[in-house]
TrEMBL record:
Keywords associated with the record: Carbohydrate metabolism, Hydrolase, Isomerase, Magnesium, Metal-binding, Phosphoprotein
The organism of origin for this protein: Gordonia sihwensis NBRC 108236
Catalysis performed (reactions): beta-D-glucose 1-phosphate = beta-D-glucose 6-phosphate
Enzyme Commission (EC) number: 5.4.2.6
Tagged with keyword Isomerase: yes
Keyword Hydrolase (UniProt): yes
Any single Pfam family the record assigns to this protein: Hydrolase
Superkingdom: Bacteria
Family named by the database record: Belongs to the HAD-like hydrolase superfamily. CbbY/CbbZ/Gph/YieH family.
Cofactor(s) needed by this chain: Mg(2+)
Cited Gene3D superfamilies: HAD superfamily/HAD-like (3.40.50.1000), Putative phosphatase, domain 2 (1.10.150.240)
Protein name: Beta-phosphoglucomutase
Any GO molecular function: beta-phosphoglucomutase activity
Amino acid sequence: MTVLGLPDDITVALFDLDGVLTDTASVHRVAWTDAFNTFLTRRAGGDIGGRTDSLRPFTDQDYFDYVDGRPRMDGVRTFLASRSITVDDDTAASIADGKNDAFLAALARDGVTAYPGSVRYLHAAREAGLHIAVVTSSRNGEQVLEAAGLTQFVEQRVDGNTIVAERLAGKPAPDSYLRGAELMGVDPSAAAVFEDAVSGVAAGAAGDFGYVVGIDRVGSGQSDAMKAAGASIVVTDLDDLLAEN
């Protein structure tokens, strides 16, 4: 698979969705920001100026550190734990539902854009005989793939609904990617993981996959964090891998 910038023994590609194939990671980030800041403002009694440090506004760095790539409820719990905030299950679910409502509203309003470089890579992968699956923590994976016109490329899909139904541990645990490899009928060593989240890169490394590709669409140290988490290579767009040949 040298034409794709991958080792020759890789036969399956396991792609994360948001931020790898589609420009929806930014939509998720905005939706999470709205949901958490609504919660934090209410918890502070609406007094923004009088917030304690634990109730300071949610930031982009909070998203990358505690939420990006994780299943929805894991993201809620991980972020709240970072602020030493404890809530009951109903409150956590309310935050998660608020995030999803905001995401779906943006999806309906603005649609979905697939990265041109990713589309070029998908076409090249299919022509080269690489088998393709999507592994995403999003429970809206099917809708996003359909809206972006990418369903035609995908042979199997593991998404947030699969994770819940099969009680898989979310990223950074490797379980969802291991399930993807299982559905594709290959050993992890024959599969490459493609991720834009540090938690997803860590999942690929933990699962002993044959190759882990980090896609850095953020900058500001993200590439170094991905390499530290176990990325085999870090690129800024998927078609950079085609340019390597």
